[in-house]
């Protein structure tokens, strides 16, 4: 049974369960949603990420979560915390936050609502000293939300990743310390 990590006005944020991969594949794994995230994934890739996320939660008490819309009970996105694991990043192991919202729920504020809850989780219960978020210049909506959340651009952490197309390079990072977060609450 999934753990409910947080509730917002419109969302339940819950851990990933065995068997969630097919639903993620159906509602989140579309060309439009995945355009800036390396493209559509195969089901086995989603299953492997879910296994990794469940293991991270079991070992460290944080992971990516599903965003469940209270009004409909539907999966509308995922968000959460993981460790920076790209071997090209100089800050491997940092607490990385991220989000993804299904296309028919874009521009409703779900990502911002969820990420406020994730930041609260990161800085209180998880005890992260700071968090980072990774994106590209081309993913304007992503970095604009990072700025709206109070995150600061960290050009010193940028890196190029040949696994992504030229328009999604370099990978850029934003960060937020616990102190910065506390000052904006």
Give a short summary of the structure:
Helices cover 31% and strands 25% of the residues. With 185 residues, it is an alpha+beta fold.
Q: What labels describe this entry?
A:
Aminopeptidase; 5 helices; 25% strand
Category from helices, strands and their pairing: alpha+beta
CATH architecture call:
3-Layer(aba) Sandwich
Q: Can you tell me the CATH superfamily?
A: Gcn5-related N-acetyltransferase (GNAT)
The total strand number stands at 8
Helix content bin: 25-40%
The overall pLDDT average reads: 95
User: Biggest β-sheet: count, sense, barrel?
Assistant: 8 strands, mixed
Structural domain tally: 1
What is the spatial order of strands in the main beta sheet?
1-2-3-4-5-6-8-7
User: Would you tell me which CATH topology applies?
Assistant: Aminopeptidase
> What's the number of helices?
5
Which regions contain 5 or more consecutive residues with pLDDT less than 50?
none
What is the N-to-C order of secondary-structure elements (H for helix, E for strand)?
EEHHEEEHEHEEH
CATH class wording: Alpha Beta
- Tell me, briefly, the overall form: globular
Amino-to-carboxy terminus distance: 32 Å
How big a fraction of the residues is strand?
A: 25-35%
Give the radius of gyration: 15 Å
